[in-house]
């Protein structure tokens, strides 16, 4: 925020020292931190750049080392092994394309419970907190990961105080709930799809940005209910989400039209509503989503078109960004197809923040809500 | 029962013929009718709440179908359903607490309970689980048990009851208690609906200041009482009344205000934009408030709201809590508008040759809508009988007053 001066010359000279600070996180990898979350999303979408591939090779070799180096040095040997397992476990769950990020996190924590040799609730809680901190520090850019971990820890600390005298039954109940969470997540998507059916009317045109599994579920359900509508999807560079989404939708016989990202304002006239998913929903009621969402929301707002966000409730996060640069940077490699001279900088952020005044309604499994509900829910949960 | 049927049929007729004017009167009559339905309804011993809910829903569907434009009917039916669910829940948790104490002294019962597959949990856990199913879903309850746990109290309590006679005596008193509690709750609702004007008028003094100019449109009893309450407290202010064509109810309001000693100016609807720069605040009454904070009001309020937004004038909407609707304006069940007779606009005799009757020479059509929709971003404040609220706060009131299961009737 405080660097908004035209003196980008000064900025360029001053960026070199902060870069050094980043390298303490991953000393063996490249100086710029590529966001693991967005890499995984890209992997799901099947878009793998050569750069990312080489990074991934290095990362697989490096994860065992980084697993040891990341946690605070006060961890014991046993703790190091655990953190190694947690991250490995999380990565293996995350690779599945149909699983939500938070579900992968909670499954990883469930694995920690299963492998734990604790004999009291307190010990178990401490282990879980350590594991969740490790996961969070490993990938600071994934909001659903943080939110999912916090939610689970909160649940553990709250219910453990209740009536169970028997530790084993409490532990098994925790494991059962953690395993059930995958079902809860699927149920959440179905609830959201059901709630949003009333908003899709016959003959409407929907603009979709990004490839959100929740939005796909909504459109699938609408098609199954024999609603007549058509979809405009943005190309979604550099992930190519538009092509994937359009192929999915054409399988369902929904008329689809692909747009360049820059053609959104041109086509906004014929659009009736905009549907987006969210990587995270922040406390102000705004959303953090794939790059381009803010732009589309601005255009839609200026033309009085409603912007609907479909997000499960476990994506609510205790962040309050005041502007675009106020979040942890999440960078990703972008291919332009041509060789770019090294003097030319590339804006590689993978996500942007859309403030709540440009959003109309949030479709969540807690119901159809206005953006001000988010802080209410978070306050109830955390205070 | 036949008595109740005829009452329901008579009321449905009245609604269909639009004989009852105003949402407050309609809401009150509807609640009184539902109270009779509940008191006459014979309930079985088990699952009595479900029987009551079904009875009320059946009557409610008929009433809503008779006059779908009057959203207050649907609102109060849902309020009554919510009351039934709440009372049932509080009775069940009290019963569970009592039952648990008795169980603790009886070994057989504990074994039996375990036999049903009901773990040895204390009443607090069951109560918490049951309460979580009634409360709107929240992040706190996301990871907790599924709603099946709510039905377990029923089976376990009935299972335990078949054991001892003392418990069966409690059960029959439980039956009477549920109906009694529900009727008490419904009486409270009637009291609330009747008293909404006073509650809202009490807050007038905080919003209307000395030497202000207030603009209002059409005629609303709530607005009248609001302005008079401020006048009583010795505030001196002026009122601009937009006449509210084609019914010209603004004229009646102006007469009443002058009778109470307020300085009033009558303007046409088209003059709102011209006069808005001289106005400090716009106050209107609403026909209904939707779940997103949007307002359905008399035709012309959208224009007043846009004018107010342009000149940064606060736009205040007064609405009793019976006008708060849990549906969204996009919902196909919500009829946003009703078309009234074109004779209010044009005299039939003069225009009979050019009017379009489908087959013939004329091509003149006349449209006379009753209502207007104001989107939530144009509204500054809602004043209800519970206080002043932001449009984005409406979801909270809805969660307090209505249950999610009742939204589709």
Automatic annotation (TrEMBL), chain A:
Annotated region described as Disordered, given as residue ranges: 1-23
Subcellular localization, as worded in the UniProt entry: Cytoplasm, Cytosol
Keywords noted in UniProt: Cytoplasm, Initiation factor, Protein biosynthesis
Record carries keyword Ion transport: no
InterPro entries associated with the record: eIF2B_alpha/beta/delta, elF-2B_alpha_N, IF-2B-related, IF_2B-like_C, NagB/RpiA_transferase-like
SUPFAM superfamilies xrefs: NagB/RpiA/CoA transferase-like (SSF100950)
Pfam families in the record: IF-2B
PANTHER family: EIF-2B GDP-GTP EXCHANGE FACTOR SUBUNIT ALPHA (PTHR45860:SF3), TRANSLATION INITIATION FACTOR EIF-2B SUBUNIT ALPHA (PTHR45860)
Quaternary assembly: Component of the translation initiation factor 2B (eIF2B) complex which is a heterodecamer of two sets of five different subunits: alpha, beta, gamma, delta and epsilon. Subunits alpha, beta and delta comprise a regulatory subcomplex and subunits epsilon and gamma comprise a catalytic subcomplex. Within the complex, the hexameric regulatory complex resides at the center, with the two heterodimeric catalytic subcomplexes bound on opposite sides.
Family according to the record: Belongs to the eIF-2B alpha/beta/delta subunits family.
Name of the protein in its database record: Translation initiation factor eIF2B subunit alpha
From TrEMBL, chain B:
InterPro entries xrefs: eIF2B_beta_subunit (IPR051855), IF-2B-related (IPR000649), IF_2B-like_C (IPR042529), NagB/RpiA_transferase-like (IPR037171)
Residue numbers spanned by region Disordered: 138-173
Key words, A-Z: Cytoplasm, Initiation factor, Protein biosynthesis
Pfam family, one: IF-2B
Main subcellular location of this protein, as a coarse class: cytoplasm
Biased composition (Polar residues): 138-155
Domain of life of the source: Eukaryota
Family affiliation: Belongs to the eIF-2B alpha/beta/delta subunits family.
Quaternary state and interactors: Component of the translation initiation factor 2B (eIF2B) complex which is a heterodecamer of two sets of five different subunits: alpha, beta, gamma, delta and epsilon. Subunits alpha, beta and delta comprise a regulatory subcomplex and subunits epsilon and gamma comprise a catalytic subcomplex. Within the complex, the hexameric regulatory complex resides at the center, with the two heterodimeric catalytic subcomplexes bound on opposite sides.
UniProt-recorded name of the protein: Translation initiation factor eIF2B subunit beta
Organism: Camelina sativa (False flax)
Taxonomic classification: Eukaryota, Viridiplantae, Streptophyta, Embryophyta, Tracheophyta
């Amino acid at each position: 925020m405080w660097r908004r001066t035209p003196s980008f010359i000064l900025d360029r000279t001053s960026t070199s020292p902060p870069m050094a600070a980043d390298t303490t996180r991953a000393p063996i990898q490249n100086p710029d931190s590529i966001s693991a979350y967005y890499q995984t999303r890209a992997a799901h979408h099947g878009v793998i750049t050569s750069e990312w591939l080489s990074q991934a090779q290095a990362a697989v070799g490096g994860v065992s080392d980084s697993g040891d180096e990341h946690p605070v040095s006060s961890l014991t040997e046993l703790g190091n092994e655990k953190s190694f397992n947690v991250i490995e476990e999380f990565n293996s769950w995350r690779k599945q394309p149909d699983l939500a990020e938070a579900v992968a996190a909670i499954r990883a924590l469930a694995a920690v419970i299963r492998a734990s040799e604790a004999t009291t609730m307190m010990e178990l809680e401490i282990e879980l907190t350590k594991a969740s901190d490790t996961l969070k520090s490993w990938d600071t850019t994934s909001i659903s990961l943080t939110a999912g971990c916090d939610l689970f820890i909160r649940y553990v600390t709250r219910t453990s105080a209740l009536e169970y005298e028997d530790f084993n039954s409490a532990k098994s109940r925790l494991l059962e709930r953690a395993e059930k969470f995958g079902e809860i997540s699927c149920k959440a998507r179905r609830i959201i799809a059901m709630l949003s059916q009333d908003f899709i009317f016959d003959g409407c045109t929907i603009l979709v940005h990004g490839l959100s599994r929740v939005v796909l579920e909504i459109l699938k359900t609408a098609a199954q209910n024999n609603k007549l509508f058509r979809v405009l999807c943005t190309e979604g560079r550099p992930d190519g989400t538009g092509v994937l989404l359009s192929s999915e939708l054409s399988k369902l016989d929904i008329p689809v039209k692909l747009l360049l990202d820059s053609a959104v304002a041109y086509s906004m006239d014929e659009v009736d509503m905009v549907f987006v998913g969210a990587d995270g929903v922040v406390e102000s009621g705004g959303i953090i989503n794939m790059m381009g969402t803010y732009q589309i929301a601005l255009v839609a707002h200026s033309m009085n078109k409603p912007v609907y966000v479909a997000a499960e409730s476990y994506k609510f996060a205790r962040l309050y960004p005041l502007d675009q640069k106020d979040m942890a940077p999440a960078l990703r490699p972008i291919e332009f197809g041509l060789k770019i001279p090294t003097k030319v900088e590339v804006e590689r952020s993978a996500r942007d923040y859309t403030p709540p005044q440009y959003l109309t309604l949030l479709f969540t499994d807690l119901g159809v809500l206005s953006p001000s509900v988010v802080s209410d829910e978070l306050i109830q949960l955390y205070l | 029962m036949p008595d109740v049927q005829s009452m329901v049929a008579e009321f449905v007729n009245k609604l269909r013929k639009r004989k009852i004017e105003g949402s407050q009167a309609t809401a009150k009559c509807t609640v009184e009718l539902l109270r009779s339905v509940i008191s006459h309804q014979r309930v079985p011993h088990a699952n009595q709440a479900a029987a009551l809910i079904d009875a009320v829903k059946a009557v409610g569907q008929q009433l809503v179908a008779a006059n779908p434009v009057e959203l207050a009917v649907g609102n109060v039916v849902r309020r009554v359903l919510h009351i039934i669910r709440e009372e049932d829940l509080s009775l069940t948790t009290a019963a569970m607490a009592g039952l648990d104490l008795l169980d603790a002294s009886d070994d057989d019962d504990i074994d039996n309970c375990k036999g049903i597959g009901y773990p040895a949990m204390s009443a607090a856990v069951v109560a918490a689980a049951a309460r979580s199913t009634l409360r709107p879903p929240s992040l706190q309850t996301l990871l907790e048990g599924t709603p099946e746990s709510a039905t377990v109290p029923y089976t376990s309590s009935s299972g335990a009851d078949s054991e001892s006679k003392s418990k069966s005596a409690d059960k029959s008193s439980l039956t009477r208690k549920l109906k009694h509690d529900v009727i008490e709750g419904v009486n409270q609702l009637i009291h609330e609906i009747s008293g909404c004007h006073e509650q809202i008028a009490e807050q007038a003094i905080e919003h209307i200041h000395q030497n202000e100019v207030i603009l209002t449109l059409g005629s609303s009893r709530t607005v009248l009482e609001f302005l008079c309450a401020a006048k009583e407290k010795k505030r001196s202010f002026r009122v601009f009344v937009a006449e509210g064509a084609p019914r010209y109810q603004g004229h009646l309001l102006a007469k009443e205000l002058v009778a109470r000693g307020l300085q009033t100016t009558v303007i046409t609807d088209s003059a709102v934009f011209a006069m808005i720069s001289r106005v400090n605040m716009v106050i209107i009454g609403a026909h209904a408030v939707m779940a997103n904070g949007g307002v359905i009001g008399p035709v012309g309020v959208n224009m007043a709201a846009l004018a107010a937004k342009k000149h940064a004038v606060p736009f205040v909407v007064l609405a009793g809590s019976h006008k708060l609707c849990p549906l969204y304006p996009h919902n196909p069940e919500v009829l946003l508008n009703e078309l009234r007779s074109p004779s209010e606009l044009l005299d039939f005799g003069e225009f009979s040759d050019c009017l379009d009757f489908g087959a013939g020479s004329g091509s003149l059509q006349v449209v006379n809508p009753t209502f207007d929709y104001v989107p939530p971003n144009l509204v500054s404040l809602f004043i209800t009988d519970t206080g002043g609220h932001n449009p984005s706060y409406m979801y909270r009131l809805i969660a307090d007053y209505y249950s999610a299961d009742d939204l589709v009737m």
